[in-house]
Amino acid sequence: MTEFPLAALLIWGTVVGLDLASMLQGLFNRPLVAGAVAGVILNDPMAGLRIGLALELFALDVLPVGASRYPDYGAATVAAVAFGAGQAWTAALGPAVLLGLVLAHFGGLTIVLHRRVTAWALARAEAALDRGAPGIAPKIHLAGVLADLIRSAALAAIGLLAAALLKHAPQLDVGTQRALAIVVVAGGFVAVIGGALRRAGSPRRMLWLAGGLALGVLGLGLR
Amino acid sequence: MIGLARTFLRLASLQASWTYERMQGIGIAVAMEPLLVPLAENPDRASAARARSAQYFNAHPFLAGAAVGALARAELDGEPGERILRLRTALSGPLGALGDQLFWAGVVPAAMGLAMLGVTQGYGLGVIALTVLGYNALRIAVTAWGLRIGLAHGIRVAHAISESWLPRAAPRAGDVAAVLIGAAVPMVAAWLLRGSGEPVRASVLVVAGAAALGVLTMRRPLSAPALTVGAAALTLLWRWSAA
Fold first, then answer.
1. Strands (E), chain B
2. Which of A131, A220, A222, A223 would best serve as a mutation to test chain B binding (most B beta carbons within 10 A)?
């Protein structure tokens, strides 16, 4: 674990966990943002951008609405970048993104747990709340903030531990590394394109999407 | 003024106490509390207002300020309790739908599409910093606007919102997001696969295959992360058996 600037990554992983739903929701939890900052902390900004960008493709398929269950990509991306930093990108991209995906879905389970803990605190104070007793709602709210702080810190710590363990695992051969990189990038595009098509809904929005795609292909061809 | 500033700050953590039972209800109560201070002179009214403020509520968190402002104004104006609860129910759906359309399906994917394009063009950290700053400026401005319009219009806030910029902007944000995500897809594919030997060919193949799968699974969505982990496991198995 001493290979990482552990304290800085743990703090950043906790901040992005809080940003997911409890505090601000200011894009810090997005994989591209979380990954870029983790890359800077690890002195490998390119690894942060590349791994963050690959995980962002999956995150773009997620709509965090209402009571839906969604993965927590923030701390997962920080851990994925901690694993991938300092390695050749072809070697790191596949395993790092896979680690991020697994951790993000584990993080989603912890969100449900957080909601249940808050509901338990709420149930104990329900009668006082319905009477309009002063100071009860802020206490429950504070309990929710603290529970999410603990959830986010624990998730970041587990992610960094997993990254450290994986870093010491035997290296895959070059062919397997490349194949895994292609698999995760393709998976990311299934997510982002599938999500964009479903969200488009109307034929008009589909045209906007197709127009954007055409512009992108044109831009690529001109390079 | 201090009460308004405290409410505004508390709106930033609206969802910290989200539960399946009351959803954002507790967060709304906490945000409303500073605005209800004038009711302290009448303890019965204050208790009734506090009890109502913690009931079930769910809307988009960035637009919930409009509900907080309107509900607080209605309480201060002495509107009947049943009418205030009806307002609460009536605001929940529209503020949720408009906010989801504007932010989750519009501004957020548009911002990330723009950031992804910037990264592929070599602007890396700078474009990400600008995106985060711009997004948060918008998010704060919208929350402040919501709170202001809610406090100004009280029980008639729904009409004020329907006449505002919001219903027109929400679908347009989705159009912008569609263009930016569409443009980012091939650029990101090329950028991620650069170094694999034939970047353009590999990118076109990957994007075309993913697009085909995306179209095929439009009506019956599959879990892309599960598909990816499964495909990676099969890849490892295949490579291991071939070794």
1. none
2. A220
**Could you say which residues from 125 to 184 on chain A have a Cβ atom under 8 Å away from some Cβ of chain B?**
129-134, 136-138, 140-141, 143-145, 148, 172-173, 175-176, 178-184
Which residue's entry shows tokens 């509107």? B79
In B16-57, which residue ranges form alpha helices assigned H by DSSP? 25-32, 43-53
Question: How far apart, in whole angstroms, are the C-alpha atoms of residue B84 and residue B86?
Answer: 5
- A128-151 pLDDT tens trace: 999 999 999 999 999 999 999 999
| Mutate: best of B10, B13, B196, partner A, most A CBs <10 A | B13
| DSSP structure string for A11-38 | HHHHHHHHHHTTS---STTSHHHHHHHH
**What are the structure tokens assigned to A13, written together?**
């992983």
This complex has an ipTM of 0.95
Which tokens belong to B42? Answer: 């009448």
Question: What mean pLDDT comes out for the span B34-47?
Answer: 96
Check residues B92 and B1 and name the one with the higher pLDDT. Answer: B92
Task: Band the pLDDT of A1: cuts 50, 70, 90.
Answer: very low
Q: How far is A118 from chain B (nearest CA, A)?
A: 6
* Rounded Cα distance, B90 and B67, in Å: 10
For chain A, the first-to-last Cα distance in angstroms comes to: 42
pLDDT tens, position by position, A21-80: 999 999 999 999 999 999 999 999 999 999 999 999 999 999 887 778 899 999 999 999
Instruction: Report which secondary-structure segment, H or E, holds A148.
Output: helix A136-167
Distance from the Cα of A64 to chain B's closest Cα (Å) equals: 7
For the full predicted model, state whether its pTM sits above 0.90: yes
- Which of B176, B233, B225, B64 is closest to A56 using CA atoms? B225
Q: For residue B72, how many other CB atoms are within 10 A of its CB?
A: 29
Closest CB to A26: pick one of B29, B139, B175.
B139
Question: CB-CB: which of A61, A105, A129 is closest to B51?
Answer: A129
71-100 of A, contacting B, C-beta below 8 A: 71, 89-90, 93-94, 97-98
Distance set, CA A169 to CA A41, B15, B123, B161, B202 (Å)? 23, 39, 34, 57, 29
What mean pLDDT, rounded, does chain B reach?
Answer: 93
Q: What is the DSSP letter of A169?
A: S
